[in-house]
């Protein structure tokens, strides 16, 4: 069976990166399901925009509508309980002395991959797609390519089934992620990524910038704003 006839499970948070990953998977696999995690995020805006994004992606191309399957929400209260970070507690979002943002939930992506692996096994999905990126990864060690590769080995061994973890954004920056959106789904997808996805750590959806909604000052907004500016200026080049 060709890889294209297989099933993929996409870690889909409703953010910019995972939305582009979902489009990437819809273009590539015959059947695509999504998984999202509810771990007591202080602002659940990302989770709220997920259903709308899935609907809009389906409306974009009939082939994508045919391929998009079930959505799974996994509640991880235990993760919230053990995390002492700005995302889940009323702590200021800043860069700590170790250079990592206080929004970091230690090992969060490892935990996500374990649950995604178990679900993928049950759903017959051999491919897991996730938006980790080492290029502008804010210092998150569980976003590193080596971490993801180690996880792929651990899951394949632990499940006794070959699982491939795909990270299409690993080596590209935010500007190139906007470009990938345009490449995959034209202006419609680019507009959806700007208008519909959410990445602001403060959950701000009242301030609209040319790059989308957000407070404009948190690290996630800064990254997105810089990436969009770079994408636009690269597009203007002859
Ligand atoms: Zn923000």
Kindly provide the radius of gyration, computed on alpha-carbon positions and rounded to a whole number of angstroms: 17 Å
* Order of the strands making up the biggest sheet: 3-2-1-4-5
- Write down the domain tally: 1
**Weakly predicted, low-confidence segments:** none
The bound ligands are: zinc ion
Strand count, sense and barrel status of the largest sheet are: 5 strands, parallel
Strand content: 5-15%
Number of strands: 7
Name the helicity range: 40-55%
Tell me, rounded to a whole number, the average pLDDT: 89
Distance N to C terminus: 43 Å
The appropriate CATH architecture is 3-Layer(aba) Sandwich
Q: If helices are DSSP runs of H or I spanning 4 or more residues, what is the number of helices? A: 8
Name of the CATH first level = Alpha Beta
As for the CATH topology, it is Rossmann fold
Please write the string of helix (H) and strand (E) elements.
EHEHHEHHEHEHEEH
Q: Report the CATH superfamily.
A: HUPs
Outline, from the CA principal axes? Answer: globular
Structural class assignment: alpha/beta
Short structural summary:
With 238 residues, the chain is α/β, with parallel strands linked by helices. 47% of the residues lie in helices and 13% in strands.
Describe the structure.
The chain is an alpha/beta fold and 238 residues long. The mean pLDDT is 89. The strands form 2 sheets. A 5-stranded parallel β-sheet has the order 3-2-1-4-5, with helices on both faces. The protein is 47% helix and 13% strand. The chain has 8 helices and 7 strands; from the N terminus they run βαβααβααβαβαββα. Helix 1 crosses helix 7 (174-196), helix 5 packs parallel to helix 6 and helix 7 packs across helix 8. The termini are far apart. The protein has one domain (3-174): Rossmann fold. The protein is globular, with a radius of gyration of 17 Å. The longest helix has 23 residues, at 174-196. The structure holds zinc ion. The site of zinc ion (ZN) has 9 residues, from helix 8.
């Amino acid at each position: 069976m060709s890889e294209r006839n297989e099933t993929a499970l996409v870690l889909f948070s409703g953010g910019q990166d995972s939305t582009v990953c979902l489009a990437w998977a819809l273009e590539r696999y015959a059947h695509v399901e999504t998984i999202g995690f509810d771990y007591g995020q202080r602002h659940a805006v990302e989770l709220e925009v997920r259903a709308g994004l899935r609907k809009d992606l389906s409306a974009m191309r009939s082939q994508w509508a045919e391929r998009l399957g079930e959505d799974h929400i996994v509640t991880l209260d235990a993760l919230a309980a053990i995390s002492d970070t700005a995302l889940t507690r009323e702590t200021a979002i800043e860069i700590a002395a170790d250079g990592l943002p206080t929004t970091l939930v230690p090992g969060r992506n490892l935990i996500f991959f374990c649950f995604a692996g178990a679900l993928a096994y049950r759903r017959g999905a051999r491919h897991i797609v996730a938006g980790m990126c080492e290029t502008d990864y804010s210092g998150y060690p569980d976003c590193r390519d080596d971490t993801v590769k180690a996880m792929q080995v651990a899951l394949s061994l632990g499940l006794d089934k070959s699982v491939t973890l795909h990270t299409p954004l690993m080596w590209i920056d935010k500007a190139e992620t906007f470009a990938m959106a345009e490449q995959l789904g034209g202006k419609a997808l680019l507009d959806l990524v700007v208008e519909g996805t959410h990445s602001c750590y403060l959950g701000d959806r009242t301030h609209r910038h040319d790059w989308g909604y957000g407070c404009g000052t948190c690290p996630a907004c800064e990254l997105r704003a810089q990436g969009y500016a770079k994408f636009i200026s690269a597009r203007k080049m002859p």
